[in-house]
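Technical note accompanying the year-one report. For the benefit of new consortium partners, we illustrate the data format agreed upon in the data management plan: each record pairs a sequence with a structure-token string. No post-processing was applied to the example shown here.
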Amino acid sequence: MTNYIKAFHTTVFIGALGLTGMANAQMPERMADDNKGTGYIGVTGILMSEYLGSSEQDFQVLPYLSLEDVKGFDFFGTALTYRAVDVGTGQGLGKWSLRAGPRIAYSPGRDSSDSPYLTGFEDIDGSLPIGGYALGTVGPVGLRVDAGQDFVGHDGFTVDASIGTAYSNEKFGFQPAVTLSWADNQHNDIFFGVSSEQSMASGLDIYDPNSGIYSYALSALAWYKIEENYAVVLTGSYRFFTDEATDSPILNAPDGSDEGFFAGISVTRMFDTKKW
């Protein structure tokens, strides 16, 4: 029972909000080597903004799959990472750790049909930023940085930095975090900018954002063990757009918003991957 709690605790927060494209710090207790190689399968329901800067919400029910240290690979949400570096005395009080390596993830794009105020805009394909991550913990505090360059959807470069902490026992766990999101001009322009042609078609003012921090978010994850190998996971995040994003006519349109919301509930079952 305890091994399951430790493994689940570690896996779920690596990418608990990965579906939103946000990075998250995680500070779980470090597992012993014989606890590694674990997967989780189930179903998740998520409620999130239709696109960056939208006040409208979209609900989806999706399959849930995550992998914990399968030959060095971790998969959660929409992010696949590899532990090229994994050192330290552990995670928890009086311990330290450092984990880093390559990372690839999927982030949703935007359809012009999502809003009448996007008339004349082109659809934004989902992106696959390729880059890396680093996760360091000292005692109960963890810091995670994810960075990636997209080559599919918006061709932009993004960086997410998170800091947080965690509490858990054998039945319950809670992990809060704060995340800052930075992007280059290419990313911010395609999501928040309005060209002269787009302005004429949509009626929105022309806007040309620069690179910079475009949002920060408060997030939390909680899980509760209901059976030997089953758990219910609750995730939530509230994002506040700032600087280059808040002046965007897209966010200031009648159906826009300078805040974003995400919530999810998942039911998962553990399975063993050590024989893979």
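Partners are asked to follow this layout when depositing records. Helices lie at 2-14, 185-192, 196-202.
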